[in-house]
Amino acid sequence: MSKITMVEAVNLALDHAMENNPDVVMLGEDIGVNGGVFRATQGLRDKYGLKRVMDTPLAETLIAGISIGMAAQGLKPVAEIQFMGFIFPTMEQLICHAARMRNRTRGRLSCPMVLRAPFGGGIHAPEHHSESTEALLAHIPGLRVVIPSSPVRAYGLLRSAINEPDPVIFLEPKRIYRASKQEVDQNTPLLPLDKCFTLKQGQDVTLVSWGASVKETMEAARTMEQHGVSAEVIDVATIKPLDMETILTSVRKTGRCVIVHEACKSFGAGAEIAANLAEQALSVLKAPVERVTGFDTIMPYYRMEDHYLPKPDDIMKAALKTLSFH
Amino acid sequence: MEKKELNPIPVYQYLDAEGEVIERLPGWTRNKDILLNYYCNMVLGRQADAKAIALQRTGKLGTYPSCLGQEAISTVFCSLMEKDDVLIPYYRDHPGLLARGIPLSDILLYWGGDERGSASEHWGKDFPNCVPIATQAGHAAGVAAALKIRHEPNIAVCALGDGATSKGDFSEALNLAGAWQLPVVFVINNNQWAISVPRTIQSGAPTLAQKGISAGLPSYQVDGNDVIALHEVLSEAMDRARQGKGATVIEAISYRLGDHTTADDASRYRSGDELQQAWNKEPIKRLRTFLHHRGYWDEQQEQALIKDVGQQIEQNVQTYLNTPLPPVKDLFDYHYANMPSTLKQQKQEAELRATGGKHHE
Ligand SMILES: Cc1ncc(C[n+]2csc(CCOP(=O)(O)OP(=O)(O)O)c2C)c(N)n1
């Protein structure tokens, strides 16, 4: 088994899904010969042909629209939106149709489609290439929003997303596309959707994160460990629907919680987690829930993006604040 | 230069407003059954429409869009479709849905505010009504792509209004249909109005059909109140699609004789004169006159039809009115194939609320 990066794991998951199920088709801009601008679909057109790996015209609304048409007829489209910054034209189709087709027809038609998009900051990209707007999608009933944080989870979650009978938005944190390598092959297990993953056990404080921020969160946890503070780290992985059970179990143990995400602070998925903790775990909380997040500003161009993205240091400070609360 | 001269699009018409033949008739018109089927379905569509409006006025139906004046268009394209073709309709295609075998009770159930109106097996793989204008054009392109990828012999038929042609979705779908040679027919029901906005404000293009030309698609105009012309143009377009020769755009010119919906009052924005002139061209009277002239139809048959249609409608209305409300759990059960645990909790909560806090016996 060889060690591969997260984007390679995405590619492998797509490859294996296409191999296993002839109904899986892929579509998007530049995904064919070019293999996608991040190479997530590299080699797949040669292997599966033009009819299964389709370069579309440059039209995001259409990419979502035809995916819905295909899905409702029994194909399994896996569409790529080149960057999440260009996902907005698809929102009408996702909200008004993909998310509702099953409900609208009482199960007669459905939209078993996956919409993939690289997202998040930190790669020195131009404007509109670095935002984290996962909460916009997570608000929509009928959708699933899944965000991997490592090669193993990218593989296992994407395979499961493709098997899922309903629409899944699969957001790939591009900052960590090539940040680390893990052993992944076709025997790597599929991972459940709708579940959080506990990455590290701990007693003193629960750190909750997802996507690229898991990297800084783990760094913070390791440093804290050296200073005698034991942090439990949870990778949320599926933002919608949210597995509060895993988070609650941890917070009932530690009594403290810090939520870390790249997206703006207000109205984000962190607020949802904090509200659930307030509703269901107030009596065990030993300190207010802290959030370490991006600011409620427009994501800056790359010279300033470091000031926007949460750092391990910020996470540690927040954790220490909860630990010293009286 | 007159705008008319800019019209690069062929226009088809066989019957004038008086039902007189103005063009050599195609051979199939000697088969009176085809024409009588069209006629009966259009009459059913019109009576059902009137009934639906009456139900809305008496509080028994939600807001409802009338198809008055454009019964011919969807009647013809739906009658020409095969069972396994896929219809991607718009919200004024009731006569077409009826021609396709979808019971009127389903249509009433939908407009009566019940999702089950789009759920019955009669719908096959057809799409339900689509409310956000023109978004169904993309679905139609996707359906057609799926049919092509799977080498299925069927086609997709997509209907939309004149206002819908202004949206990007429409252009994007046509563009793809051209680039990928998709088996789909786009039918524009140009009924001259998009709520209060007239056709002239919708686009400076002299025809809407010509929007297909930029996508490389054969594009035609047809008198949408003339079933013979509709049959000619639509069957040719469908054949092309079936033969793998790609998509066609058809602009069927008609007129919305009613209000936009039961919540609208068209007299606020259009003149009685215009409406009166449009009534002179309406499709049902035109076909009836033609059928009479040919000796295919008489007053007795008309009376029998009206009676039969009335009974059918009454039965369907009763079926609709007698359909019990769905249980509260239906709010939750169809969002996801695998229901998330959070939703299970909310479902329990809703059921408790619905029973006033008591569990079901
Ligand atoms: C995207 C969108 N914008 C606005 C509306 C509100 N609306 C409903 S019908 C309509 C007019 C549509 O006109 P047209 O496409 O010509 O069809 P017609 O109603 O005339 O048959 C509008 C503006 C809508 N349903 N969807």
From TrEMBL, chain A:
| Classification via InterPro entries | THDP-binding (IPR029061), Transketo_C/PFOR_II (IPR009014), Transketolase-like_Pyr-bd (IPR005475), Transketolase_C (IPR033248)
What are the UniProt keywords, alphabetically?
Oxidoreductase, Thiamine pyrophosphate
One Pfam entry for this protein is Transketolase_C
Pinpoint the Transketolase-like pyrimidine-binding domain residues: 4-179
User: Where do the coiled-coil regions begin and end?
Assistant: none
Which Gene Ontology terms cover its molecular function? oxidoreductase activity
Primary role: The branched-chain alpha-keto dehydrogenase complex catalyzes the overall conversion of alpha-keto acids to acyl-CoA and CO(2). It contains multiple copies of three enzymatic components: branched-chain alpha-keto acid decarboxylase (E1), lipoamide acyltransferase (E2) and lipoamide dehydrogenase (E3).
Name the record gives this protein: 2-oxoisovalerate dehydrogenase subunit beta
Q: Which PANTHER family match?
A: PYRUVATE DEHYDROGENASE E1 COMPONENT BETA SUBUNIT, PYRUVATE DEHYDROGENASE E1 COMPONENT SUBUNIT BETA
Cofactor dependency = thiamine diphosphate
Q: Which SMART domains match?
A: Transket_pyr
Which species?
Answer: Endozoicomonas montiporae
Automatic annotation (TrEMBL), chain B:
Q: Set out the biological process GO terms recorded for this chain's protein.
A: branched-chain amino acid catabolic process
Required cofactor names: thiamine diphosphate
- Asked if Oxidoreductase is a keyword of the record, the answer is yes
Q: Which UniProt keywords apply?
A: Oxidoreductase, Pyruvate, Thiamine pyrophosphate
Q: Which SUPFAM superfamilies match?
A: Thiamin diphosphate-binding fold (THDP-binding) (SSF52518)
Concerning Pfam families, the annotation shows: E1_dh
Listed GO MF terms:
pyruvate dehydrogenase (acetyl-transferring) activity
User: Which EC number(s) are documented for this chain?
Assistant: 1.2.4.1
Dehydrogenase E1 component domain mapped to chain residues: 42-326
Q: Which reaction does it catalyse?
A: N(6)-[(R)-lipoyl]-L-lysyl-[protein] + pyruvate + H(+) = N(6)-[(R)-S(8)-acetyldihydrolipoyl]-L-lysyl-[protein] + CO2
- Is the keyword Oxidoreductase in the record? yes
Q: How does it assemble?
A: Heterodimer of an alpha and a beta chain.
What role is this protein assigned?
The pyruvate dehydrogenase complex catalyzes the overall conversion of pyruvate to acetyl-CoA and CO(2). It contains multiple copies of three enzymatic components: pyruvate dehydrogenase (E1), dihydrolipoamide acetyltransferase (E2) and lipoamide dehydrogenase (E3).
Q: What is this protein called?
A: Pyruvate dehydrogenase E1 component subunit alpha
Species in which this protein is naturally found: Endozoicomonas montiporae
